[in-house]
Amino acid sequence: MEAGSMNQDSTRKARVNVRRAEVMEQVEKEIQQHYQSELISHIRSAGNVYNLGHTEFFLAREFGFCNGVRRAIDIAYAARRVFPDRRIFLIGDIIHNPEVNRQLEEMGIRKLPWKQLDSSYDRIAPDDVVIIPAFGVPTPFMDALEEKGVQIVDTTCGDVMKVWKRVKNYAAMGITSIIHGKATHEETSATASRALGERGRGKYLVVYDLEDARILCDYIMGRGDREAFLKRFEGCCSPGFDPDRDLEEVGIANQTTMLKTETQTLQKMVKDAIVQRDGDDDNFYVFDTICGATQDRQDALYELLKNPLDVMFVVGGYNSSNTTHLVDIAREHVPTYFIESAECIKSIQYVDAFDTKTREVRRMTTEPVVQNLGKSLKVGITAGGPRPATPGGGASPPPSPLVSAPAVRDVIKQ
Fold first, then answer.
1. In CA terms, which of 118, 131, 176, 260 is 20 to 30 Å from 29?
2. Residue 186 known to be catalytic
């Protein structure tokens, strides 16, 4: 064994199970207090429909915490109780939900940057605790933390780790990973680092949308320009990526929160391009890594949109991939407003909503609401996250969504 490896093993701390029964009993009470809503529970029991005067509210069948998110928050809350006198740091956001992250900050959990290992990490000491968010972090971050000998509390979602296993297998087989995702998203950044493989020689290309996919497929079929291709995917591929060499064998993976229909279209486009080039699909590999809870939420929205809605509100963090895709789906069917909380509703006529194209909040007129004043108004509401599943190591949550419930409740009251 090399000296460097021995030194790293000597500083690495054993993982601690913070989800102990006695701890989780208290954590469960805190989470219920912070995130449960009696109004939303009542609406759930009434078939997800709520009448208030001339207004009828329709809630999506699925929203709130998924099991992976609930687990991450459970672990973060538990870590604070298990290590009451130690400094606790969190890399980036635990999830893309501003209320959850605010609660953790109020508990004294400090933030560390997730995009790069900067000087902030120099102040971390072996007695400190560092929480890994649900998205995971790139391998250099894990290596640095283990070398420092800090106590690592890992909340990485199990579905994300399944993607990592897939891209590491691709790397071991000499297959280039085509990752459907956003290169600047925490999860995709972490996945890309695993796609380099154990020896760091693996190859990957991050494809964000169908236009990226079209350019990729054109190149596979011999119709692309090398310089234009490399410029297009600058910062979205592995070091030294050579499209003439590294697109011979490709395997598809994806950020777990992407729009499933788009991922399926992308898979077919790449497969068809390989078949046209080679005559068969022997050099094409695919593994569906879309999170089941993500798909449940999208399916629930499509079901909700079957109602004759006048307007739709989507509640969630503006940097949430999950929520953004819900907005994309909804606005194809009905006027849609992307808001972070009920405070964004300024009056019956105006709302401060997030524009996903300009990436900024701007004041919008709620024309569908104004036009239906005094008449019957049908309002659809969903939020960025699926319903909770029963967490291990603690009491079972009630059969109502948690994380977004207070926000959705406040939207209805507003």
1. 131
2. no
